[in-house]
Amino acid sequence: MTDVRALLEETGALLTGHFELSSGRHSDVYVQKQRVFEHPEATSAIGEAMAEQWRPAGPTVVVAPAVGAITLGFATARALGVRFLFTERADGRMHLRRGQALDPSDQVLVVEDVVTTGGSAAEVVEAVRATGARVIGVAAMVDRSNAPSSLTFTALLAIDADDWDPADCPLCRDARPLESPGSRHLSGT
């Protein structure tokens, strides 16, 4: 089994400091997943590990949210030997665009990189269900949510990290500089 924590540490993807998460919450731990995704061998190994967990469920398509999870979703679909699609945010919601389509007979595995609140994964699930396709579950590289899911959910690594509403953030009270490294803060996402 792939040691995801070791890969994150070796590539400098597991960071400590004061971060604004894509959810808007603050945390002292951040997973800069692109640092591990810079390495095709590591990304392929993670995709293989996710595929191994989900192969028995028989997914026919993998769908991931843009931008952050595209690389991992592709690697997982490749390992499973199935199609890969991605959703994009438009008008505040996730949509399949660029001619991508699902059929009601499709069995969809939603792949996420890092789950904090589960919001992006839930939006992808909603977009998939709107097509009539069936979501069989959600797979993540890292789960830092500590929250139950109404869907079948697996993660290769669980990280126990604190996060706070900005108004309650002890790091803000200590005037520690805040970083916002997530892709949701980029224009066009």
Labels describing this entry:
Rossmann fold, 6 helices, 189 residues, three-stranded antiparallel β-sheet, alpha/beta
Overview of the structural elements:
The protein is an alpha/beta fold and about 190 residues long. It has a single domain, classed as Rossmann fold (3-Layer(aba) Sandwich). About 30% of the residues lie in helices and about 30% in strands. It is built from six helices and nine strands. Strands 5-4-3-6-7-8 form a six-stranded mixed sheet, with helices on both faces. The protein has a three-stranded antiparallel sheet with strand order 1-2-9. α3 packs across α4 (about 70-80). The protein is globular. The termini are far apart. Residues about 185-189 have low confidence and may be disordered.
- Write down how many β-strands occur, each being a DSSP E stretch of 2 or more residues: 9
Gyration radius from CA atoms, angstroms: 16 Å
Mean pLDDT: 90
Flag low-confidence runs: 185-189
Spell out the helices and strands N to C. HEEHHEHEEEHEEEH
CATH first level: Alpha Beta
Helix fraction bin: 25-40%
Described by strand count, sense and barrel closure, the largest sheet is: 6 strands, mixed
CATH architectural category: 3-Layer(aba) Sandwich
The strands making up the biggest β-sheet line up spatially as 5-4-3-6-7-8
CATH fold descriptor? Rossmann fold
Structural class assignment = alpha/beta
Q: Figure out the total of helices.
A: 6
How large a portion of the residues is in β-strands, by DSSP E? 25-35%
Query: What distance separates the N and C termini?
Result: 33 Å
